[in-house]
Write a structure and sequence with these properties.
There is one protein chain. Helix content is 63%, strand content 0%. It has one domain. The mean pLDDT is 87. Helix 1 crosses helix 2. The radius of gyration is 18 Å and the shape is elongated. By secondary structure, the protein is mainly α.
Length: 78
């Protein structure tokens, strides 16, 4: 798969999404939580969304590995 980073120096790229208002409210609640628990980070909605997305991707990738292992072990028993 080709790299989607436009330059070696770009650590982040802009990625726009449309989210329901309720999701934005939940992200802002998470920002408030982060800022109350770790006052020095001065989190904003963009940072919180990145953090939540990374956590979700890690969880899904772990689930995918588990499912793949189960499928492979099921195939070898046949």
């Amino acid at each position: 798969m080709a790299s989607r980073v436009s330059s070696v120096n770009d650590a982040y790229q802009l990625f726009n999404v449309r989210l329901p208002v309720g999701v934005l409210e939940r992200i802002h609640a998470y920002v408030d939580h982060l800022n109350s628990m770790q006052p020095g980070i001065d989190a904003n909605a963009s940072m919180a969304a990145r953090m939540l997305l990374m956590r979700a991707l890690e969880q899904v990738e772990a689930e995918m590995k588990t499912a793949s292992k189960k499928a492979k072990s099921g195939e070898s028993k046949k």
